[in-house]
Amino acid sequence: MSIDWKAYDPNGFYDELISAPGIPRPAAKTLTDYLRSLGDAEIHERKQAAEHAIMEMGISFTVYTEGGNIDRAWPFDIIPRIIPRTEWRRVEAGLRQRLTALNMFISDIYNEQRIVKDKIFPAEILSQSRNFREQCRGIQPTHGVWAHICGSDLVRDADGSFYVLEDNLRVPSGVSYMLENRQVTKRVFPELFENYSIQPVDEYPSQLFDMLASLSPRPLDYPEVVVLTPGIYNSAYFEHAYLAQRMGAELVEGADLVVCDDDCVYMRTIDGLERVDVIYRRIDDLFLDPEAFNPDSMLGVPGVMRAWRAGNVALVNAPGAGVADDKVVYAFVPKMIRYYLDEEPILSNVPTYLCMDDKEREHVLANLDQLVVKPANESGGYGMIIGPHATPTQLEEFAELIKRDPRNYIAQPTLKLSTSPTLCDGHLEPRHLDLRPFVLQGVRTDVTAGGLTRVALRKGSLVVNSSQGGGSKDTWIVDTDTRD
Amino acid sequence: MLSRVAERLYWMARYIERTENTARMVTAFNHLALDMPYQTRVSWAGLVSITGSEAVFEDRYSEYNEANVVKFLLGDPANPGSILNALNSARENVRTTRDRVPTEVWETVNELHLYARFNLDAGEGKRGRYRYLSQIRSRCQQITGMLAGTMSHDHAYDLIKAGRNLERADMTSRLLDVGAVGLLARGKEVDEDISPFEGLLWINILKSLSAFQMYRQHVRRRINAADVLRFLVQDPEFPRSIGHALAEVEHSLANLPRNDIPLRMAMQVKRHAVDSQVDKLLEPKELHRFIDDLQKEMAELHGLVAETWFRLDKAA
């Protein structure tokens, strides 16, 4: 039996592929027709081919468990998500605008703090910020850019418009899966690539390398660029190795690097010590340098902050960039865009209540069962509560947490996250998803064509994190202009 | 190249070579077992002693029979040298250096590991064993070939070659030790003639190293202890002879920076192998001592390689 699109019903949610049961969106029609032409057995075959490819290519992520770490196969749904290119152009422009303003904000915060003096951004948020680094005051990195790599999470609400949910400016991950998802899809549905004009994504590693190389403190033809990983037990180790390989950069661990008396960073090689120019670090600020931050860190490089401050090495993203990666600071991004760029934000924020504000906190506590409440500084979907899905006891407990530490919490209305057809037990069902595009900023700004689509595989679930039962899909930015 | 990466690539090569050698050896013994009359002393225990893991084996099994030994050598998680464990380690070493190794090599290592794991039952059974082991052997060779054909022959590659050849020389020496046991058996007989058992034993050693055909082509004499020993210890052209493998180690190390100490050691071991007087080694005790000395020197060479290029504090 083949797929019956009339039986696929997203139940009032905005669906990425169809506008109503049985009616595909224009950009998706070729795909939905094609899927319908396949029988159940054939769909199953494609799914198996994808699983096989993922095993063979060794696409994995690491899960922490009590019994140790497990290297798990990457969960992937073969049905791609399609976004028309005309729509994407606007998102792209919005992301550029946003990261430009965020970088101006970070620069300002560590230097003059004009935005605080002009009373656009409250000083007390800064003084209580967990990601503000005193050690970064007065630094002016190359091109004035602090957050060179940004992964912003976008969601669509019921009306189909995109909202920014958060900006990941510390060590955003997922881009390797975006690249590998495309490789797998090419193996599974090669015929579709002939009939669609799909924007390629594979330029990312070259763009990343060019951006990193442009930050070298020494004007060299071949600067030494390294990727600093916490090691094989990190959940994103696969990605660290993947990016290092695609860039031809050295993948290093903290113990491979040393800072000498000349305040330069060197790596330990079979030839002896070799100078390092650019470090793409995938380690959080606090573990980066035991001399400057957490003295117990075994992952970092003692003295690397010294070398950075002396201008002898570039750190990417710059230490302290996380000051803008905070769900409270997030609420101010539209204001930053108006303040620094004198432009209206192209992409909207999700309406956000700050619990530190007395009036807004009252509203949050009174409507807790309808809101999503998140801690300001967690990632990976930890420590949050989804009001409509929580028990009364959980809500009560959470209300206490908010009262105890209001600065740490924000609340947002429960969005009606869009859905897309996902293969569940052999047939298609709507599942909620988000999108994480990646933005690179150096001399120029590049946005990936699409990004990593994460999908909540459990029915009705809104949690898309791979550590919590999420999967992913290939994301196609499709040129509809050239086709009928 | 990072010292840490150097170490992992070196071990990756050793584990792949170990896997291939073990598969080759089990295949050869398997053939021999089918040839020999029931009561002969081709004992499966010999296979365990070649890998030097009698203690681990005896801890786990009460009897040296075919089923136990094959299980132990192929997939026993408690045996660090089992094919499955060697492949686990090889895979882990490539996984943690996949930025340096050509992608197709990583994929092949990964697939080989999956193949060995998922088909273990077939490999342990009598009927599927040949196919299982020959698959493993040829996939290991595929990896060696891919490295030769798609990886730049740089320092990383030199270390891979050094690791592979040191492991290979070590394996050949271990198999020759079995020959020493054979000589011991002959020592007890008055008759100087080679017993049929001993002939078969040396043939089997040659076959375990895939050396039988090349021995025939290059030695052209009937199988006898002295010639087999000379061929496997000193032949400059056969890739699995100790002399050849150590010469390869020497060439690889010669390309590496700061190599004086390990290179000197590599030349010394090779000289001891190539210049040895084979005729004097036909005494079982002599042969055993000779091999023991060679193995000690090879272990020392490995130690110097690690000391020179892998230790992080040495680079600073």
Automatic annotation (TrEMBL), chain A:
<protein>
    <submittedName>
        <fullName>Uncharacterized conserved protein, circularly permuted ATPgrasp superfamily</fullName>
    </submittedName>
</protein>
<dbReference type="InterPro" id="IPR051680">
    <property type="entry name" value="ATP-dep_Glu-Cys_Ligase-2"/>
</dbReference>
<dbReference type="Pfam" id="PF14403">
    <property type="entry name" value="CP_ATPgrasp_2"/>
</dbReference>
<feature type="region of interest" description="Disordered">
    <location>
        <begin position="465"/>
        <end position="484"/>
    </location>
</feature>
<dbReference type="InterPro" id="IPR025841">
    <property type="entry name" value="CP_ATPgrasp_2"/>
</dbReference>
<feature type="domain" description="Circularly permuted ATP-grasp type 2">
    <location>
        <begin position="80"/>
        <end position="456"/>
    </location>
</feature>
<dbReference type="InterPro" id="IPR016450">
    <property type="entry name" value="UCP005522"/>
</dbReference>
From TrEMBL, chain B:
<feature type="domain" description="DUF403">
    <location>
        <begin position="1"/>
        <end position="310"/>
    </location>
</feature>
<protein>
    <submittedName>
        <fullName>Uncharacterized conserved protein, Alpha-E superfamily</fullName>
    </submittedName>
</protein>
<dbReference type="InterPro" id="IPR007296">
    <property type="entry name" value="DUF403"/>
</dbReference>
<dbReference type="Pfam" id="PF04168">
    <property type="entry name" value="Alpha-E"/>
</dbReference>
<dbReference type="InterPro" id="IPR051680">
    <property type="entry name" value="ATP-dep_Glu-Cys_Ligase-2"/>
</dbReference>
